């Protein structure tokens, strides 16, 4: 189904939980946040019912997020159920990688096609500080397991932050020379804890690209990396992988946006940077049939805004990213 601006909406990002097994400093406060009561979170059966309604308006691709989706009990059964929906042709997952090594094979067998892994540093001590206790070796094992299992492509999401990890951006880019990894540099977005950070920490995609080309050589544009996201991909000469740039703030991709977001509490959100949400949980629990759920999808698609104004007004939201859906 097309929205009012002739964008074909076919991609649904589903937050299966607000919980996470890390406490990354730009995502949430050290004490964490109050977990949403279990009975307020969509059940796996409710999520599947919502996706079955979504395919009626053209949803073909889903991505499971959190929080950390792999901490949600029953995640493998959900993937199996979604993979049985004929119209769904792509199931992806975004994870911090902590549980990936032990789950990669089962995720692949259940129906996951590809995986994105959040990783902002290659230094063990810094990783532990950024995540407030995480183990980098555990994530490395997860990355290797994803490659070995055939979760393809394996994409690494790195938020580029000045005075934080900008001294490692070249090291991360070099990974693509010897490994079939797709490193994506993401601009810092003002959500949650990061909303209070000094704007001087912001690094634009153009600056990261200039840094890489100045040190490592010319980047060639690549157009055949599988996925439905906003990244623009390039490759270093001789590289096995690619380097992607996600410019949510400096050069937004709103004109190409093809997605909706479903929060863990059952709110359908047309735009990450807009507060408007449509409730699917209450009608579903009140006995609404598929036609009523499809109507809510129609409303969400037709209310999708033309764009955001992050570059002018940084979003004010009292929820962190794990509560909205990553």
From TrEMBL:
Spell out the reaction equation it catalyses: GTP + AH2 + S-adenosyl-L-methionine = (8S)-3',8-cyclo-7,8-dihydroguanosine 5'-triphosphate + 5'-deoxyadenosine + L-methionine + A + H(+)
The entry's GTP-binding residues are 13, 63, 94, 155, 259-261
Sorted alphabetically, the keyword list is:
4Fe-4S, GTP-binding, Iron, Iron-sulfur, Lyase, Metal-binding, Molybdenum cofactor biosynthesis, Nucleotide-binding, S-adenosyl-L-methionine
Q: Organism's domain of life?
A: Bacteria
Q: Give the molecular function GO annotations.
A: 4 iron, 4 sulfur cluster binding; cyclic pyranopterin monophosphate synthase activity; GTP 3',8'-cyclase activity; GTP binding; metal ion binding; S-adenosyl-L-methionine binding
* Domain (Radical SAM core): residue spans on this chain: 4-221
Documented EC number(s): 4.1.99.22
Quick one: which residues bind [4Fe-4S] cluster 2? 254, 257, 271
Cofactor comment text: Binds 2 [4Fe-4S] clusters. Binds 1 [4Fe-4S] cluster coordinated with 3 cysteines and an exchangeable S-adenosyl-L-methionine and 1 [4Fe-4S] cluster coordinated with 3 cysteines and the GTP-derived substrate.
Q: Which InterPro entries match?
A: Aldolase_TIM, Elp3/MiaA/NifB-like_rSAM, MoaA, MoaA-like, MoaA_NifB_PqqE_Fe-S-bd_CS, MoaA_twitch, MoCo_biosynth_MoaA/MoaC, rSAM
Pathway per its UniProt entry is: Cofactor biosynthesis; molybdopterin biosynthesis
User: Is the keyword Lyase in the record?
Assistant: yes
- Give the PANTHER family listed for this entry: MOLYBDENUM COFACTOR BIOSYNTHESIS PROTEIN 1, MOLYBDOPTERIN COFACTOR SYNTHESIS PROTEIN A
Role summary? Catalyzes the cyclization of GTP to (8S)-3',8-cyclo-7,8-dihydroguanosine 5'-triphosphate.
Q: How is this protein named in the record?
A: GTP 3',8-cyclase
Q: Which organism is it from?
A: Desulfoscipio geothermicus DSM 3669
């Amino acid at each position: 189904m097309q929205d009012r601006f002739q964008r074909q909406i076919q991609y649904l990002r589903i937050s299966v939980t607000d919980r996470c097994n890390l406490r990354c400093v730009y995502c949430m406060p050290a004490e964490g946040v109050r977990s949403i009561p279990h009975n307020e979170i969509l059940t796996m059966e409710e999520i599947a019912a919502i996706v079955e309604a979504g395919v009626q308006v053209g949803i073909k691709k889903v991505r499971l997020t959190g929080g950390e989706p792999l901490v949600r009990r029953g995640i493998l059964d959900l993937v199996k159920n979604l993979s049985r929906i004929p119209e769904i042709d792509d199931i992806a997952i975004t994870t911090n990688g902590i549980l990936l090594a032990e789950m990669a094979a089962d995720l692949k067998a259940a129906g996951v096609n590809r995986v994105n892994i959040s990783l902002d540093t290659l230094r063990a001590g810094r990783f532990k500080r950024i995540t407030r206790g995480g183990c980098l070796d555990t994530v490395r094992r997860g990355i290797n397991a994803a490659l070995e299992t055939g979760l393809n492509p394996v994409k690494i999401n790195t938020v580029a932050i000045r005075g934080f990890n900008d001294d490692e951006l070249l090291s991360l880019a070099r990974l693509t020379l010897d490994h079939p990894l797709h490193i994506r540099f993401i601009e810092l977005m003002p959500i949650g804890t990061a909303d209070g950070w000094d704007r001087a920490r912001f690094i634009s995609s153009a600056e990261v690209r200039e840094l890489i080309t100045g040190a490592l050589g010319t980047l060639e544009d690549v157009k055949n990396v599988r996925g439905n996201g906003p990244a623009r991909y390039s490759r270093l000469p001789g590289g096995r992988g690619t380097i992607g740039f996600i410019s949510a703030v400096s050069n937004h991709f709103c004109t190409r946006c093809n997605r909706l977001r479903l929060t863990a509490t059952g709110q359908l959100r047309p735009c990450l940077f807009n507060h408007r949400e449509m409730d699917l949980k209450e009608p579903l629990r009140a006995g609404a049939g598929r036609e009523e759920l499809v109507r809510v999808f129609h409303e969400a698609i037709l209310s999708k805004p033309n764009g955001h104004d992050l570059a002018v007004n940084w979003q004010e939201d009292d929820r962190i990213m794990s509560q909205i859906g990553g």
